[in-house]
Amino acid sequence: MLKEQQKKDAQKQKEQARENFRQIREQEAEERNLRNQLVQNVEKEERPVRPPKKELSRKEEKSEKVQEVPDLLPMSWTASYIPLKQVKNGIIQTSDNRFVKIVEVLPINFLLRSSSEQRSIILSFMSYLKIAPPNIQLKVLSRKADIQEYIDKIDEEAEKETDERCKILQEDYAELIKSLGMKEAITRRFFLIFEYPSRSGSKNPDERDVHLYMRSAVQTAKKYLAMCGNIVLEHENETRFCVEILFQLLNRQTCLTESLDDRIKEVRKYYTEENGPESIRYIPVTELVAPRTIDFRNWNYVVVDGLYYTYLYVQKYRSRVPAGWLSLLINAGEGIDVDVFFFKQDKNRCVERIGRRIRLNRSKIKDTYDSNSDFDSLSESIQAGYYLKRGLSGSEEFYYMSILVTITGHSEQEVEWRSKEMTKLLSSQDIGTGSCIFREEQAFLSSLPFLQIDKNIYEKSKRNVLTSGVAACYPFASYEMSDKDGIMIGVNKANSSLVIIDIFNSLKYKNANIAIFGTSGSGKTFLMQLMALRMRQKNIQVFIIAPDKGHEFARACNNIGGEFIQISPSSSNCINIMEIRPADMETRDLLDGYTSERSELASKIQSLHIFFSLLIPDMSHEEKQLLDGAMVTCYQEKGITHDNLSLTDPEHPGKYKKMPILGDLHEVLMRKEECRRMANILNRLVSGSASSFNQQTNVDLENKYVVLDISELSGDLLLGMFVALDFVWTKTKEDRTVEKAVFVDEAWKLLMSNDLAGEYLIEIFKTIRAYGGSAICATQDLADCFAVRDGKLGRGILSNSKTKIVLNMEVSEAERIQEELDLSEAETNSIIHFERGNGLISTNNNNLIVEFKASALEKDLITTDRKDLQELKDRIRKYGTDAYGRK
């Protein structure tokens, strides 16, 4: 009974709400009719008598009949407030019958470009303005970065991970991103908004004309902004894009937990239940984008969707500004949005008005004394008039510009504080602002992407400006490197956005190679290990070759479940140089089709010839032939021939037979007198001080994180480097569809060790892209790198690395890297003064300064700083293995 009564009460409430809404609609209709009658009575006497309207046929009557929208109970009362009529074909029709197009533009890092590049960009932007639509709105939105997508990806990868140690690091990585997302991470979006200029003055232009004009305007913007380096984004569904932007703009709190699809489902369900299934076709688009609440009751702020808004407008400008000066506002921080309006004026009329004003002021100045303050004012006005006239006599156009700054926060106190801080910031740059008190509602409507600014705010904020001045306001200058499926390496110091790079994205990066430069102690090894750990967490195969201080990689390797392989005479680790490892032919056959089978034995013997040429540099041609025969015999004695089927162990299907070792080859060589010299030289690796090379492979070569420590190899034992490089290169080429990364620390040492090692390294950088891989090297001695073979090897690495990271460098080294990377003076100066943990990333013609971010756990695993290691040692003594990541 109680439930039935509740249902009845609910039904009554709905009926009452519906009745109230109908009464309001009827009252509004009566008021409209009354106003229309009054207007008709006033105009009746002036209006000429027209002949009676021609009687229409049924067909004509039907075509002219306007379909009436039935009375529907809206889900949100705020929907009727949004000045939006419809969105069709990606074009917004406002309630006052204007047609508006929103285009999203990707920014570039304008401020870190050289002076010549900046000038070129501004000139290209000026070229666009000359043929752009007459009225333009530039809108910049800033908000906390949505990191949920990255967190979900990490969680998904953690579920698939089988190593518990790696899972711990994945959880720690996710917590770090959450922490940065709460404190620092800000993202910005840039929009170009223009409207259809009705040439005939009609408020009901032909739909086809509007569509063609907008399409042409978008293509023009795309073409000219590409000359600036900007990309105009295109979407599969432009209408959906527009609705999504409006939904996110008007529902900044709700959109964090509710998607547009969720809102659409909710609205459809409501209309079906309250107004019947047939009402779905009449749902206004405003229902999908309108916030649930709007509060205009306060004089100094508004509340929309639970978020507080207040507004400032710029009323005083500096007489001279640098190109890209709007970056001061754009990069001001979280909760600061910027809208810039440009309205092109009739050029001839402006020239005429300016001429009249100059003549008037010249007549006034004759009656003033040069010591009078009015004299200075009139003199400046006359000079400004002549400046405008000179510009307009050329190719420049006359605009009125207005800037509106939106400030958001979660409380009245927060927006008030931000407003004061913003005012101080702009005042320090001689830019005056005004507050929109008692006009907050009008400011809110002006900030919508409908290119409609309130007249009162416009009159207070407008400033005349020529095309060159408009171009100086180039806004697309806050570059973000936040790839969707990459690794987070830090925070962009210019705009506090997260720096997330996916170097394997071939659509964005021509190759996945990275070259890291920095002086000793600048953090090269730290950064390399940070990247390696995070790649391993994404299940990317990681190989690290450490020619120097290999022990620095052991701690991180052991704590992520990796394999640390020390190649040296004193180590028990061994990679059998004579081992033929199973190759994955399935992928090759699937992609390329079956090709003639090549002998695995022949490939291995070819590799062994390089090994022995390092061991015995003065080997004669006769000895090479004898060695070749001895190697074939050695493998034959193990049952291995040029037939690849002979490699398979019949007792263990799917596995290869036990391979020969150097000792087996030594025995074969000892059988012939003419091979004794080679056997004696090989003896050191078989039974001498380096006999650790004479054993079967005893390390896990299938591990996802392999560190090869070759730092103890020297002199004639540099052939151990070949063992490491040969293994890595062979594994890299196995499967082209698998992502893998090869890290080489202190590459200068490898380049200078011997020619073969240098050639191998260059070969990796040149061709690893074809095998789905990335080569990442770090070096501190640029002079040595560019000295080898007249710089051929050093430049080979540099030219084959799409991404370069420059850490702190000495003056001489910084000047050299400036020349190689074509850096500006400002960038070079920054490099010289970088603190540890900061660096410059250069990729895709964009440079940005990054503060690298590691969690406490990651820092403990990869730090090489003496003080940090001392502190870690004390913690390990106190807490044991639980010491990592503790404070």
UniProtKB/TrEMBL annotation:
<protein>
    <submittedName>
        <fullName>DUF87 domain-containing protein</fullName>
    </submittedName>
</protein>
<dbReference type="Pfam" id="PF19044">
    <property type="entry name" value="P-loop_TraG"/>
</dbReference>
<feature type="domain" description="AAA+ ATPase">
    <location>
        <begin position="510"/>
        <end position="813"/>
    </location>
</feature>
<dbReference type="Pfam" id="PF01935">
    <property type="entry name" value="DUF87"/>
</dbReference>
<dbReference type="InterPro" id="IPR051162">
    <property type="entry name" value="T4SS_component"/>
</dbReference>
<feature type="compositionally biased region" description="Basic and acidic residues">
    <location>
        <begin position="1"/>
        <end position="34"/>
    </location>
</feature>
<feature type="compositionally biased region" description="Basic and acidic residues">
    <location>
        <begin position="42"/>
        <end position="67"/>
    </location>
</feature>
<dbReference type="InterPro" id="IPR043964">
    <property type="entry name" value="P-loop_TraG"/>
</dbReference>
<dbReference type="InterPro" id="IPR002789">
    <property type="entry name" value="HerA_central"/>
</dbReference>
<feature type="region of interest" description="Disordered">
    <location>
        <begin position="1"/>
        <end position="67"/>
    </location>
</feature>
<dbReference type="InterPro" id="IPR027417">
    <property type="entry name" value="P-loop_NTPase"/>
</dbReference>
<dbReference type="InterPro" id="IPR003593">
    <property type="entry name" value="AAA+_ATPase"/>
</dbReference>
